Amino acid sequence: MFEFTSFRRPPETFSVSSPDNADADMDEDYEDFLESGETKLTWPGESLTSAQDYMRGHGTYVDNEQVIASVTGIVERVNKLITVRAARTRYNPEVGDLVVGRITEVQPRRWKVDANSRQDAILMLSSVNLPGGVQRRKLESDELQMRTFFEEGDLLVAEVQSFFGDGSMSLHTRSLSYGKLRNGQLATVPPILIRRLKSHFISLPCGVDLILGLNGYIWVNKHVKQNEREGEEGFDAEAVYSSRNDEIDESTRAAISRVTNLITVLVSHSIPLTDTILLDAYDWSLEQECDP
Amino acid sequence: MASTSISKAEKSYIQAGLLANPPRRADGRSLRDFRPISLETGVAPLSNGSARVNIGRNPHDGSGGTEIIATVKLEVGNAVDDDGLSCTVVCSPSAYPHLSSGALDDLQHDLTTVLHSTLSHPSLRPKNLEIIPGKKLWSLNLDLLVMADAGNIYDALFIAARVALWDTKVPRTRSVEYKNPKTLSLASENMDVDRDTSSGFDTRKVSNAVDFELPDYWDEGQVLDGRERWPIAITLNLAPSVHFVDATLQEEASCASRILAAYSYETPTEPTIQCLRMFGSGELNVLGVKALIKASLLLGRIPSVLNILGRRQKSTQLR
Predict the structure, then answer these.
(1) What is the ipTM of this complex?
(2) In the A/B pair of chains, how many CB contacts fall below 8 A?
(3) Burial class (CB in 10 A: 0-12, 13-18, 19+), A233
């Protein structure tokens, strides 16, 4: 079943080999260090391989001619480059990801958004839906009243649109399901525990909606009916950019607290969050009749 | 205080939850519930007394919560210009990553002022800090390090200070005198405390002890005198018409004002108030303050369970 092999000693001398040979070498190296498809977890200080054969990438350092992991995570290898992808890290955005963010700054024609990434994300005024028609050009008057759309501290759900040259992400809210968040509270989890799902808008039958942002921010709010959220005859600016909460009754409030606490418990056991797990946990906690 | 930015919607959600009947907080606590408090003593081996306090730690992975490390170091001080206890609060930049260094200094200064003015009050001064009366004393240096702030920083600081001072051992000292056959040598223990003896014109009997030695090892000694007196603080956060304890950062950001009261429980029945402060921009009338003081008095009894630390439990968890 398993085969244990020791690391090969580093070659004494380097020789330039023909392309055919190089291929063969690659295969051997591959065998030697990482089986294909195998994932290897590592811990800080663990020696990975010899520094003479491989190059150190992110999450590793060289000491005593050994490549050593500096973080806990998954070892990845691209040709000769060894990197460790950290398990606990900030969010690494990808285009198309759904994120929940908080406005940190209002700037000319753009908002800065904290999205648990290394840099603040940017939401351009041109990539939000403006009131009075979905496909409307932005006007100067819009630039002057940007705080009526989003102001500092506001939470919003958006999608990663593209990246700027410096690696910061550009967001957009050009969909009716994106926009300002209200009627609920925020839970923060490590981003690695959010898997990419078919839909990140989850509706639990207890009257609670969840938005699982891939950046680790989770918005737990009162259930909003589908047609209300989509707004059939177009776009209701009042509703989308409103900061007022609806009436939330006692049972919904209790359910929201319960779901938030469940998220905290699941996360502390490093369990990835999906709708089924949350639903099972919710039912179980109701059975146990414990307080939220 | 830490400026956590929250949106208007979150703010009104939290406030509506507090005013709801029954009140409902974000993590399901009632208005009078504290988060779990963990305590540990003896965390800094080179200090004379130390403690680590965490409020609101996640019980499974030990993350989160407001975490404070407090240490007490005794140094030989000059009895003339030393008032016995000095507090310093240092905030780790990692606890407030969004604050600039200037803002961090301001925050540290604010926290230090409240703690120092409360704890260095003469009514709380331990009696067994004298080494050579009128000349030398142990000066208490209480250093608190804020490792993480998840709300309710003042309560945590006061708990940490109390536990560290509770844990403190004062080394016993023996005076050394030069024998003068004409004068009767006096043991320093028998001398009454007199701080004015440095005057050259003083004709009263002065201990002629000039130096001292330590019979104990450095980590032995006696506990601080009157350690039951060190105060406990309760912060009441004021939402309109209700007040609640142990606010998280979001809750702190959503209520306009807070009132901090510190009590000293020398006898369990008659606490004395040591500190009363109000933070924030809200207003309060006198009647309101009186009612709040009463409410915090009742609450203050609960953490006086901290006295079980006297049994030298290495690590205690209480609710």
Answers:
(1) 0.74
(2) 74
(3) exposed
